[in-house]
């Protein structure tokens, strides 16, 4: 069994018209045994930038703490928040410098950049970036997430439609993966507001 599948996870980010959504499941397991049903996988960096960490849960929490530390140093030095593209490069460099003893995480980064242009990307545990204009996925449910997102996504969605699309894609995907599930956590970010929602799913 892969160490990336030890806790189970599903993370997806999707772009809309001047907005983005990032969602994750809420299950924390030890292989097939469920330990918690309210586990946090999507973390705030600043008001317009979020990161989702799939993979080994302990490494996800450690990596997030190191990223918060680096971002606070940047804020002190530059007196501004980090742009999503810059943050993606920071995450990539942080992962690559630990390539001989890596964090077992696959990050999904989503943010609003200049002119409220949405930016999303994902990377492997060594920091190799994969940029996209529509959606990115990671976790044990990534195969079914790809299928659901491919069939449901369309460009230029308004916030309400984007929220509905990413929620349906997440729910449909985790139902096909026994290592993730127990509802979902969805963040919808527009230039003016951030909406957090917990969605209920099958509890089996």
UniProtKB/TrEMBL annotation:
Source taxon at top rank: Eukaryota
Tell me which Gene Ontology terms the entry assigns under biological process. proteasome-mediated ubiquitin-dependent protein catabolic process
Question: According to its record, what are the GO cellular component terms?
Answer: cytoplasm; nucleus; proteasome core complex, beta-subunit complex
What compartments host this protein? Cytoplasm; Nucleus
Q: What is its main location?
A: cytoplasm
- What keywords would UniProt list here? Cytoplasm, Nucleus, Proteasome
Q: How does it assemble?
A: Component of the proteasome complex.
What the record says about family reads: Belongs to the peptidase T1B family.
Functional note: Component of the proteasome, a multicatalytic proteinase complex which is characterized by its ability to cleave peptides with Arg, Phe, Tyr, Leu, and Glu adjacent to the leaving group at neutral or slightly basic pH. The proteasome has an ATP-dependent proteolytic activity.
Its protein name is: Proteasome subunit beta
């Amino acid at each position: 069994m892969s160490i990336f599948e030890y806790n189970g996870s599903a993370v997806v980010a999707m772009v809309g018209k001047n907005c983005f959504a990032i969602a994750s499941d809420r299950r924390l397991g030890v292989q097939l045994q469920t330990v918690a049903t309210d586990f946090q996988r999507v973390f705030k960096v600043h008001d317009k930038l979020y990161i989702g960490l799939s993979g080994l849960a302990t490494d996800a929490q450690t990596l997030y703490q190191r990223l918060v530390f680096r971002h606070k140093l940047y804020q002190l030095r530059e007196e501004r928040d980090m742009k999503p593209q810059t943050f993606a490069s920071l995450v990539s460099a942080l992962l690559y410098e630990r390539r001989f003893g890596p964090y077992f995480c696959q990050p999904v980064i989503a943010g609003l950049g200049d002119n409220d242009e949405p930016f999303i990307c994902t990377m492997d545990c060594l920091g190799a970036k994969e940029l996209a204009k529509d959606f990115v996925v990671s976790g044990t449910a990534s195969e079914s997430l790809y299928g659901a997102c491919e069939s449901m996504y369309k460009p230029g969605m308004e916030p309400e439609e984007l929220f509905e699309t990413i929620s349906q894609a997440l729910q449909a995907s985790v139902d096909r993966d026994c290592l993730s599930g127990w509802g979902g956590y969805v963040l919808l970010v527009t230039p003016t507001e951030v909406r957090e929602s917990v969605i209920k799913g099958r509890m089996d």
